[in-house]
């Protein structure tokens, strides 16, 4: 007999999530008709997540996942119209540096919520410039770059800061604070955003456990391996729950083993519902991912393929 894992959001408590396993088939058509469940929370409520499992063991395992840090992140992202519409859009974007160097030429594409998209190309193909345009660090010479409903090129400084708070950045050189511990590096990112000490003490250990650095909480960056430093950078990008993670050559300084670990972590973050954009020239990683690939060559989109490969 099938078992079901499902999560409900009650309208009278937006932060209340309940995970259940149930032997009987869930009657989906009743979900907006004032159903009452065993927690005595009366409807109406809506279905956030639903999955059938082959047996009780699988259902129990899935229910436990939903209660983990990444599982809760997954549920929160399901509440944001998961995979409906686009999050980032480039519309006929060209970027020219003086006097006449065209780095991007007539670029158009969309990235949906919850997608994992790799931007690939040789050095100088325009990958980093594309990332800078999304972050509002540069403006296009022509065309528009949108983050949700905002035209980044026309946004004022306050709007740009608001957009950047919704983006978690991961870079080749880690950008860690050398005189702060692992815990302090992550806590600092939350402090900058104005989070209170209670929330910091609650969230930092959770994200460090999720990315596998809980045992290194009191270490300094120079006491970590290259792979551990990049995982710490991922924790810093993740802790404020951004809408999208942008990783610009995150494996550039890593050996193959640590590169695999970092990309596997990005995959887990994507499976938790986050949009992930990976800019890289690492052929082996791209060919193993099996995700959407946008290939740049001489500033133009050469191909845009689902389950693409690195072919230049």
Can you describe what's shown?
With 312 residues, the chain is α/β, with parallel strands linked by helices. The protein folds into 2 domains: 3-67, no CATH class; 86-305, Rossmann fold (3-Layer(aba) Sandwich). Helix content is 32%, strand content 29%. It is built from 9 helices and 13 strands. The protein has helices spanning 56-66, 69-78, 127-135, 157-164, 182-192, 197-210, 226-238, 256-271, 283-289, and strands at residues 3-10, 13-22, 45-53, 86-97, 101-112, 116-120, 142-147, 150-151, 167-171, 244-248, 275-280, 292-297, 300-305. The strands form 3 sheets. A 6-stranded mixed beta sheet has the order 9-10-11-6-12-13, with helices on both faces. Strand 10, helix 8 (256-271) and strand 11 (275-280) form a beta-alpha-beta unit. The longest helix has 16 residues, at 256-271. The radius of gyration is 21 Å and the shape is globular.
